[in-house]
Amino acid sequence: MSRVVYLNALQALDAALRHRSMRGAADELGITAAAVGQRIRALEEFTGTRLLDRGNAGVVPTAASAGVAQALRRAFAELDQVAMRLNLDRDTQVRIACDADFLALWLRPRLAAFEMQFPAIRLAFLSPADPAPPDLTLRAGGAGALLMPDWMLPLGSSENLPRMGRGPSPLPLEGMPLLHVEPVAAARAELGWPEWLARHPLRRDGAQRGFRFGCWSDALNLATAHIGFALVPLALARGALERGDIHPMFPETPLLPARNPWMLQEHPRPRPRPHVGHFLDWLRGAVAVYLASLPPPGADGELAMETGGRSR
């Protein structure tokens, strides 16, 4: 067995011993669990010694591997220190699992500023089917730390807004076409038209009727195209509002808080990765600038809008 091969096999064994799991080792090393198992089996065949057993809670070290586990951990920690001193880790890629709407409508328009500040750092946005482990996850609700809150904004096009209240009913939304969104990746069902209309009774019935979509981008695009009225997170609609593509339906009505705020989950690696920290610092700074452009929410969490139709 060559030196490179046995180093890879020992690395897989070290990770499996620390995580007590093939899957945990695979996530750390950026390979599949099957590949971890293959490396460890090759080491077992080479040494003629069984190194892992499978238990109810994951993999279990044998007497042979338990006796070398601490030595393996120290050896790879020292190798990591050598690599850092020699600047061998030149991987400047940050792998991000990101909500597609958040990426397209809020994050991507701001990335040019990041690229100007950190031209050597590469951002890789992973698809749901990508096997590579992410460094960061950005999503609506779920695990992690709060990145930023959001508020639900009723929107209509310049062509549709004058139609409200023109029917036989005095209620402005009676009979109006509603666009519903049920984000498939959200941690829980987002506040929609039925809940909004229960709070603001501007329609007698039919709050559930209308077109349904799995993402905010589709609803926002169809509202812009005069198909109906959408209830969309402010952060995702802000760009279209500023361009004048879409308009608030009720500028005087405070915005209700979203049920799923934007969350950030970090996935630490054993070896420090300063470029991930650079992106995190930049992202938090961009969020702070965005939130500073909004008025502070009230004690009830609601957000006021300017009479002119844009958040203060």
From TrEMBL:
GO terms for biological process: DNA-templated transcription. Pfam families: HTH_1. GO terms for molecular function: DNA-binding transcription factor activity; sequence-specific DNA binding. Residues 5-62 form the HTH lysR-type domain. InterPro entries: LysR-type_TF_proteobact-type, LysR_HTH_N, WH-like_DNA-bd_sf, WH_DNA-bd_sf. Transmembrane segments: none annotated. Gene3D superfamilies: Periplasmic binding protein-like II, Winged helix-like DNA-binding domain superfamily/Winged helix DNA-binding domain. It comes from the Bacteria. Belongs to the LysR transcriptional regulatory family. This is LysR family transcriptional regulator. It comes from Tabrizicola oligotrophica.
